[in-house]
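ok so i was messing around last nite and threw this chain in just to see what happens. nothing serious, just curious
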Amino acid sequence: MLEHRPALRPGILLSPPLLNGPAVVHLVKDPVSGASFEIGPKEYFLLSRLDGSRSLAEIGEAYGAAFGRRLGERNWQQLLGLLGSRRLLAGGPAPEPAAGPGPQRTGTLLRGTLRLVADADATTARLHRLLRPVLRPVVLGALLLVCLAMEGVLAASAGELLRDLGWLLSRPVPLLAVATLLWLSTALHEFAHGIAARHVGGTVGEIGLRWRLPVVIMYCTVDNYRYLARRRQQLAVAGAGAFANLLFLLPFLGWWAALPAGDPTGRVLGALLLLGSAQALVNLVPLPPLDGYTLLGHALRVTRLAPASSLYLRLRLRDRAAAAAYPGRARRLYLAYGLGSAALVLLLAGAAVTGLVLAVQPP
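result:
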């Protein structure tokens, strides 16, 4: 048996190591059936080497050198039996294909979703081909610098923009126009996630509308990018939405800068630039369910950061010995995020109240 050279089925996805509570795990996904599960580092060591080029004896020898324990035939029988039962081995029975997209519409009039395209991945692929020249690193780097310069200009004019916002809040017609443009920016945000995923090797499952009346927003479900090996690829997908929000504002910045002082259009544009920047930057705050939270999780290689931090802090208060059993990195990370996120919520609440007071103050 040890001379066999088994292989996983082509396309099986294995994630990089992720911290999950006190343990390090890897995600495994079968893209055909859609089934996924977690494994530990030892199981990942074995699965990642089942490529058909190495015998079980060779893999077992490498395993023994790495973990100080040799695997016998019985161990291999159990592992291969489990993989075979999940239909993950090449040459075995084909898995049942995952069910196609759900009903086009789900939910009620008050809360639900509406799928807008039959094949979201193909639609996003066409958009990606169209935008490929813009997605080169040098172009994206230049656009990022322009966006940062824009935010510097807007920060220097924060007082004026807050007064413009206060003026806008009492005028329903221009307020509706600004709200419509911001809604379009959210749609662009969602498409940007999908296009970035296609660019780095991910896929898109659905594109549609989600509503909880009176709020209706676009959504784009991105699949499989969590299994990409490079951290920067995952970060690019998670950060693409906020970047697209800032790019959306650039033409309006030029228009605003060209208008003479006192022009009412300039006040509408000033409020739009303020709200649009807030929309993009708040989305980068590392709190769930915002994109900043996803970015932080990818940067730290951790999954379920917020609930794991909450669980650790409660455990630290109730059972110090159990909390001390966590690895050092997990203890530091969960403690820092738990305390930092609480302080951040208080800071954002104070900033929001201050901004609202300044916006409604008469000029």
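not much to say yet. The chain has a mean pLDDT of 92.
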